[in-house]
Structure formats: C-alpha cells, structure tokens
Write a structure and sequence with these properties.
Layout: H1 4-7, H2 9-18, E1 25-29, E2 41-47, E3 65-71, E4 74-80, H3 91-94, H4 96-103, E5 108-117, E6 127-134, H5 139-146, H6 151-157, H7 163-175, E7 180-187, H8 196-204, E8 209-211, H9 215-223, E9 227-237, H10 248-257, H11 259-272
Parallel strand pairs: 1-4, 1-5, 5-9, 6-7, 7-8
Antiparallel strand pairs: 2-3, 3-4, 5-8, 6-9
Helix pairs in contact: 4-9, 7-11
The chain binds hypoxanthine.
C-alpha cells in the first residue's frame, strides 16, 4: 500500500503552515466550474505549482489553484483544477486533493464534476446529486490506494455517499428552487468520451450520468472518514443518447451557462452546513 504521508510530506507541511484552521468543508470544482472561487471571500490562494510534488494540470479549464476562502462564516478549502487518470497520472495523484483535505482536518467534502447524461429524462444544464457511484472500472487502483480496508474504513464506507450531507444538499436545492435530479454516477477512465455501445451498457446497468472523475476521490474520502457527497452538472447527453456530437467545447459552454445556478446551490449548501 502507498504511504501518502511519506510521498507528500513536504507539500502537506507547507499547506499545514499556510492553512492553520481546519476548513469546515472542502470543495473540488469540476470542469468549467472553476469560477466559483471568484464568488466567495478568498483569504489565500496557493498555486499548485508552488507545491513540491503536486501534479501539474494539463487541461483547459483546470487551473491548478488551492484557495482558502470564507462564506457565510464557514471556512472553505477550494480545489480549482483537478487531476485526472486520463492525463496519465497515478491514483495517488488523482486523489491528492482528498488527502490534503484529510490532512488539514476537514471533515466534509463536496465533489463536483461535469458529466454526460445517460438517463433520458435529464437535459444539459441539469444538476444531479450522486446517490451512488459505479466505480467498477477503478477497483484495482482503489485497492492500491486503500489497501485492505480496516474495519473503520469499511464502516466509514457504509455511509457513502453521506446521508447527512445529501440531505443538506437537497434542502439547499429546494430553498433555491433548483430542480436537483438524483442518480448514479458511472466512472470511466477515459481517455476519450464513451462509445454509444458503452453508454447503452451503462444505462442498462443503472448508470444515470457518466464522467471521468469523482468516484475514486469520493471512495477514498469516505474511507478516510470524511462525509462525502457529489453533484454533477450534466453538460451534454452521453454518446448515442442524443444525435449531437460530443465536444469539450460543449462541456465548458454548458458549464458556463449553468454557472449561476451552480453557484447559488453551493453557496446555500455552505450556509446550511
Ligand atoms: N462522458 C464522460 N465524461 C464527461 C462527459 C461525457 O459525456 N461529459 C462531461 N464529462
């Protein structure tokens, strides 16, 4: 099993010196949702380039910044720029924001992402609360990361995703008049968007949305004892569900159009925690 405490010792030490108060919640921002940081009171921004061993992000729309911010009297740790498997990184690198949150004594994590809609009832621009994940395609890597789960880690995973945090998210959506869908997020490693045949299979096996992030972050966070929840922005219909061709441009364009709704939801969640 990997010793992340050893691997990221220096980086964690720097962050522990910079961020001395435990954040109330950690927020991982998905594709095109990075602007959220601009809408809260940022106290300190650290470029991940300044952190020894932090993997550089290689995608447009993923900036590589860690913000320590405040909103509604709550302390928030924000990760702007995520690290994906399809960029060639190891699972220990992809889950680094989770490990940092844990090391900074954060007890809750809210994971966001852009995803393709498999459920035909969804439309681009919808928000979906992940009631569960399908991480079948990443089991081997998760085992490398978590090892043989201890009894405590297994118990932690029995409240995954977090019922308490999910309830807050649903309440926040209701208060903001946001129609929050619910469904299963199906993880794929990428590197490309799926084929229509793959999407047909995922749909038949209970997948409602598909994306290339979040599942491993969420499982790892939960195994470490963080209350973990996730919301997806449906940026496009998955391959074969609609006749429209998929593109990263569509993903970022829809994210842009839904920015305000997303911002309202996240702010309300933060005020309710
Ligand atoms: N598939 C995988 N990942 C995605 C998609 C998709 O359709 N849309 C946004 N991220």
């Amino acid at each position: 099993m990997l010793d992340l405490g050893f691997k990221y010792k220096e980086l964690i030490k720097i962050l522990q010196q910079e961020i001395t108060e435990a954040p109330d919640i950690s927020l991982i921002l998905g594709s095109g949702l990075g602007d959220f940081a601009k809408s809260v009171n940022v106290k300190r921004t650290i470029s991940t380039k300044e952190l020894p061993g932090y993997p550089p992000s290689t995608i447009t729309g993923h900036e590589g910044k860690i913000h320590f911010a405040e909103y509604a009297g709550k302390k928030i740790l924000i990760f702007q720029g995520r690290i994906h498997f399809y960029e060639g990184y190891h699972i220990s690198e992809c889950t680094l924001p989770v490990f940092i949150s844990y090391k900074l004594n954060c007890k809750k994590i809210f994971i966001t992402n852009a995803a393709g809609g498999i459920n035909p009832e969804f439309s681009p621009g919808d928000l979906m609360l992940a009631v569960s994940f399908n991480g079948m395609f990443i089991k081997k890597e998760l085992t490398q990361l978590i090892g043989l789960a201890t009894e405590k880690a297994k118990d932690n995973l029995s409240n995954f995703t977090s019922k308490e945090l999910n309830d807050i998210i649903k309440k926040a959506a209701a208060e903001e008049n946001i129609d929050l869908k619910e469904g299963v997020y199906w993880y794929t490693k990428g590197p490309s968007y799926e084929t229509p045949a793959e999407i047909r299979m995922m749909g038949r096996f209970g997948g409602d949305a598909v994306g290339m992030s979040s599942a491993h972050e969420a499982v790892f966070a939960s195994s470490l004892g963080l209350a973990t929840s996730s919301v997806s922005l449906i940026t496009n219909m998955a391959a074969g569900i609609s006749p429209k061709k998929l593109s990263h441009k569509e993903v970022t364009e829809t994210a842009n159009l839904s920015k305000d709704k997303f911002e309202r939801l996240v702010k309300r969640i933060i005020s309710l925690i």
